[in-house]
Amino acid sequence: MPHLQRALRIHWRLSLEQETRYLREHVLDRINQAVALLDGDGKVLFANRQAEAIFREGSGPLVINQRLTAAGAQDAAAIRENLYQTRQGFGGSMDVKDIGTGQRWMITFMPLPNAFTQSLAEQAHIMALIAEPGKLATGNLGGFAKIYRLTPAETRVLEQLLLKESTQEIAECLQIGIKTLRTQLSALFAKTQTKNQRELVKFYLSHLMAGPM
């Protein structure tokens, strides 16, 4: 009887873990965001449908030998550096460019808590969120602005921050001075309790995981 009871407990625990894993991965497949779960070395353990579609294009973020990388050598090196930082618990964000068209993707790396990884995917330690910044700025920005009480000017700055690479480009697009832009960025950091542009973008991306705003 003790052996039978132990076998039943193990069977029940495995069934529960499999069901929890299925449910959570099913949720990741349904959200409007490309998500990949990685081990500490960047091996892709799970990619939802949106992420798989991006990987299949093969000209920006992609998977080679089961590991997340990029078509461009510089971007591939940056991914490795971000993976290292995320293993240390810091996370980070970066741009990846299509080597042919110049199209950009934003990848945000986030360390996963142990409680999340144990039932989701064996040895998964990192979540990578992948999206085109231009698409991020539509459909979600209004809700984000409302939650954090952003002014129209601050909202426009955040929108451009998702689209542009430098503060100079943002200032030129909005036809404002660098000093004015820095003032608006400071207000954005204060309202969202972030410290810099990269952290602000990462904070915005994290809201996409919570569902429509």
Account of the protein in words:
The protein folds into two domains: 2-131, PAS domain (Beta-Lactamase), CATH 3.30.450.20; 141-208, Winged helix-like DNA-binding domain superfamily/Winged helix DNA-binding domain (Arc Repressor Mutant, subunit A, Orthogonal Bundle), CATH 1.10.10.10. Helices cover 55% and strands 17% of the residues. A hairpin with a 5-residue loop joins strand 1 and strand 2. The chain has 213 residues and is of the alpha+beta class. The longest helix is centred in the first third of the chain and has 29 residues, at 2-30. It has a five-stranded antiparallel beta sheet with strand order 2-1-7-6-5, with helices on both faces. A two-stranded antiparallel sheet has the order 3-4.
CATH H level, superfamily name of the largest domain: PAS domain
For the sheet with most strands, the description reads: 5 strands, antiparallel
Number of domains: 2
Low-confidence stretches: none
Number of helices: 10
- Mean model confidence by pLDDT: 78
SS content category: alpha+beta
Shape: globular
Order the strands across the largest sheet as they lie in space. 2-1-7-6-5
Q: State the share of residues found in helices, binned by percent.
A: 55-70%
In the CATH hierarchy, the third-tier topology of the largest domain is known as Beta-Lactamase
The CATH class of the largest domain, by name, is Alpha Beta
Rg of Cα set: 20 Å
Short description:
It is built from ten helices and seven strands.
Task: Indicate the topology.
Layout: H1 2-30, E1 34-38, E2 44-47, H2 49-57, E3 61-64, E4 67-70, H3 73-87, E5 92-97, E6 104-111, H4 114-120, E7 126-131, H5 133-136, H6 141-147, H7 152-163, H8 167-174, H9 178-192, H10 197-208
Antiparallel strand pairs: 1-2, 1-7, 3-4, 5-6, 6-7
